[in-house]
């Protein structure tokens, strides 16, 4: 079986060797080249035609983000870029710019809570990734310039969004299209390593009109605010005596799952208390997290929207929910925010 070629880009000779050794030990990949800066990487991408590029951030001549921008804009073909750095904020920015995945160097090298098999699976997923299609430049929400608050037309109480690979860019696309406060809160379950969700929330908060923050234990969810579930722990919701949704974060549950946070865990808890008054949105990502939760959501009469295949980075989670017959509407990423408002 022929292995897929990887170009390793890092200014440290030691890191290039270490990352190369890890990749060469995988069943499906082999390092076909190494580069010590961005300019070197661009030349070797043209020459070697790698299947995947791993990219560091801090490099001389041309840093990782500048290199990524060039690859996304100028490369003759789409090359999945896997960011390997120790800066969570840079990783979030890289995902927005088109990187397909990211991992902390410390996480990859220490291998305490992160088996290499997981890294290899993410490399496998990168091979199945396709470039997000260029969406129309017009922003349908901005055309309407709705400066007043959206008036409630339904009894919906909460929106849950589940996303994984490709999620940060998809979330940005949805949330930035809201030009007015929503009458209900949004809780986002994004698969990410610990340390990444707070920078993601801060980044989205800086570019969105809605307030975005990381969810905190015992916090009362407020209308019009977007909450990002923290990584490394499960996020469930309870209702207080006034009908408010309260964050209850737990380390263990009776639900078997590989993910922290898990979309299934959150949906199963919320469907019991919100019933038909919830909207669930399943975005791009590999695997089937969210399927069990969506079964419960549908059982209780909730609304389910899935991202369309052509706009997904990985059509995994939306696919299994759609093929299970649970989806009310399957939409391109550019249409989801408009659909939410039409429901509300």
Automatic annotation (TrEMBL):
InterPro entries: CheB-like, CheB_C, CheY-like_superfamily, Sig_transdc_resp-reg_Me-estase, Sig_transdc_resp-reg_receiver. Coiled coil: none annotated. It is found in: Cytoplasm. Residues 5-120 form the Response regulatory domain. It comes from the Bacteria. Its EC number is 3.1.1.61, 3.5.1.44. Its main location: cytoplasm. GO terms for cellular component: cytoplasm. The active site is at 164, 191, 289. The modification 4-aspartylphosphate is found at residue 56. Phosphorylated by CheA. Phosphorylation of the N-terminal regulatory domain activates the methylesterase activity. Involved in chemotaxis. Part of a chemotaxis signal transduction system that modulates chemotaxis in response to various stimuli. Catalyzes the demethylation of specific methylglutamate residues introduced into the chemoreceptors (methyl-accepting chemotaxis proteins or MCP) by CheR. Also mediates the irreversible deamidation of specific glutamine residues to glutamic acid. HAMAP family: CheB_chemtxs. NCBIfam families: PRK00742.1 (NF001965). This is Protein-glutamate methylesterase/protein-glutamine glutaminase. It comes from Ureibacillus thermosphaericus.
């Amino acid at each position: 079986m022929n292995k897929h070629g990887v170009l390793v880009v890092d200014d440290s000779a030691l890191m290039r060797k270490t990352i190369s050794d890890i990749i060469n030990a995988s069943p499906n990949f082999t390092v076909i080249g190494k580069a010590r800066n961005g300019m070197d990487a661009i030349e070797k991408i043209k020459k070697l035609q790698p299947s995947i590029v791993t990219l560091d951030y801090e490099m001389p001549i041309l840093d990782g983000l500048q290199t990524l921008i060039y690859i996304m804009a100028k490369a003759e073909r789409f090359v999945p870029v896997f960011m390997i750095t120790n800066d969570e904020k840079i990783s979030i920015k890289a995902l927005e710019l088109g990187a397909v995945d990211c991992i902390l160097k410390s996480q990859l090298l220490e291998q305490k809570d992160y088996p290499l098999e997981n890294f290899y699976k993410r490399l496998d997923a990168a091979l199945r990734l396709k470039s997000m299609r260029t969406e129309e430049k017009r922003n349908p929400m901005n055309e309407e310039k709705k400066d007043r608050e959206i008036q409630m037309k339904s009894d919906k109480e909460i929106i849950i969004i589940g996303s994984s690979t490709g999620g940060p860019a998809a979330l940005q696309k949805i949330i930035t299209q809201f030009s007015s406060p929503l009458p209900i809160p949004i809780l986002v379950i994004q698969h990410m390593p610990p340390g990444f969700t707070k920078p993601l929330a801060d980044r989205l908060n800086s570019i969105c009109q809605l307030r975005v923050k990381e969810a905190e234990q015992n916090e009362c969810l407020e209308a019009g605010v977007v909450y990002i579930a923290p990584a490394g722990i499960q996020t469930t919701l309870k209702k207080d005596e006034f009908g408010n949704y309260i964050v209850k974060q737990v380390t263990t549950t009776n639900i078997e799952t590989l993910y922290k946070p898990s979309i299934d865990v959150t949906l199963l808890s919320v469907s019991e208390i919100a019933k038909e008054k919830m909207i669930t949105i399943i975005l791009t990502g590999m695997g089937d997290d969210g399927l069990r939760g969506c079964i419960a959501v549908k059982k209780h009469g909730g609304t389910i929207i899935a991202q369309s295949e052509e706009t997904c980075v990985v059509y995994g989670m939306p696919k299994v929910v759609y093929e299970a017959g649970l989806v009310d509407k399957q939409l391109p990423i550019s249409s989801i925010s408009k659909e939410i408002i039409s429901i509300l």
